[in-house]
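Researcher: We plan to redesign the surface later, but first we want a full-length starting point. Tokens attached.
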């Protein structure tokens, strides 16, 4: 009887072991993986705080004469061509002065014509000996005076025309009216800003970089620009200025300002000055190298790969890296399945795992998250 119970007990133990090894065994952890392959890896730096789109050509224009605003042909947002009238002052007084100057010129010109005719007749008579030399000298003096008055009248007309032209405020370059400081009917004085015009043809981004990147950034490096209102759209650019001074206003967050000139892209939306922007400055790039997602690297020295249903640790040597990809120079082979969901509880070397392909991720989101507004 005792042997029978021992047999039953042994059977129950075997059953428990079998159940634990089969039906009661924990399910494998589902992990996301990326297949190791060759591709492009860039070493790049990004802004530490939000950058700003700015216009290289931006001007506040004013009237050269005092007067009352008569016409403003353009509102904010209107495009203007260089030389186009942006504002006109009341021309009534200047027009009257021009009219008077023209009348004076007509009289002076008529007097000069008569004096010239009289001089010609007197010169002919003097040559024939019919008049004395004094008469010729008198005719010459009268002609000289008439011609001088004619020249003064012409100068007065030019001055009146010039005065009239200065009542017109022209656009200094092709651009867009960004601000109006006055309205029709208001009086202005010389030099007072009346309108602001911005050229959208030469835009750049001014952005701060962390001081740790100072030694690696220089003018002429290629860069990419992304704007907050246009996620997923990238503008090409080039570094045109690196500030010689570190901004130490916030001592715990010292930064260096850089400027990235944006290359115009007719197929893209037109950037607006003042828009928040991110820049990514490319320091180095290697194509056709073995690479893994940067978020799969553990402590900069290892990755977890899936082998025979288990997570296996592999030490790796890395090269160039950015937010998205890290170059691997040794320690892993092309085609290996690298685990990217390292934040999932229980994912570690030796764990039983079930792999599924990781979804494509947007690098723009990670770059933006890296900087503070």
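Model: Full-length starting sequence:
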């Amino acid at each position: 009887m005792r042997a029978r119970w021992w047999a039953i007990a042994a059977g129950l133990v075997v059953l428990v072991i079998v159940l634990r090894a089969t039906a009661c065994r924990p399910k494998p952890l589902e992990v996301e993986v990326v297949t190791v392959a060759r591709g492009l890896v860039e070493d790049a730096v990004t802004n530490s705080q939000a950058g700003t789109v700015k216009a290289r050509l931006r001007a506040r224009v004013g009237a050269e004469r005092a007067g009352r605003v008569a016409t403003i042909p353009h509102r904010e947002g209107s495009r203007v061509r260089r030389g186009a009238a942006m504002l006109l002052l009341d021309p009534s007084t200047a027009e009257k002065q021009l009219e008077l100057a023209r009348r004076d010129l007509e009289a002076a010109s008529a007097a000069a014509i008569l004096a010239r005719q009289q001089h010609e007749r007197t010169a002919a008579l003097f040559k024939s000996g019919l008049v004395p030399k004094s008469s010729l000298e008198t005719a010459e003096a009268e002609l000289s005076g008439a011609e001088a008055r004619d020249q003064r009248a012409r100068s007065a007309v030019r001055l009146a025309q010039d005065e009239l032209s200065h009542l017109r405020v022209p656009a200094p370059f092709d651009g867009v009216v960004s601000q109006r400081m006055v309205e029709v009917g208001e009086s202005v004085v010389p030099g007072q800003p009346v309108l602001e015009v911005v050229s959208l043809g030469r835009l750049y981004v001014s952005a701060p970089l962390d001081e740790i990147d100072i030694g690696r950034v220089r003018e002429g490096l290629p860069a990419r620009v992304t704007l907050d209102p246009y996620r997923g759209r990238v503008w090409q650019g080039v570094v045109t200025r690196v500030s010689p001074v570190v901004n130490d206003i916030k001592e715990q967050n010292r930064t260096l300002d850089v400027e990235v000139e944006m290359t115009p892209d007719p197929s893209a939306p037109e950037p607006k000055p003042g828009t928040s922007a991110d820049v990514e400055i490319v320091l180095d790039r290697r194509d056709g190298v073995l690479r893994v997602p940067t978020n799969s690297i553990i402590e900069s020295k290892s990755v977890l790969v899936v082998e025979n249903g288990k997570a296996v640790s592999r030490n790796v040597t890395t090269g160039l890296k950015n937010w998205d990809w890290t170059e691997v120079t040794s320690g892993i082979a092309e085609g290996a399945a690298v685990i990217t969901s390292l934040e999932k509880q229980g994912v570690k070397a030796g764990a039983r795992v079930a792999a599924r392909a990781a979804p494509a991720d947007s690098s723009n989101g990670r770059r933006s998250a890296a900087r503070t507004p």
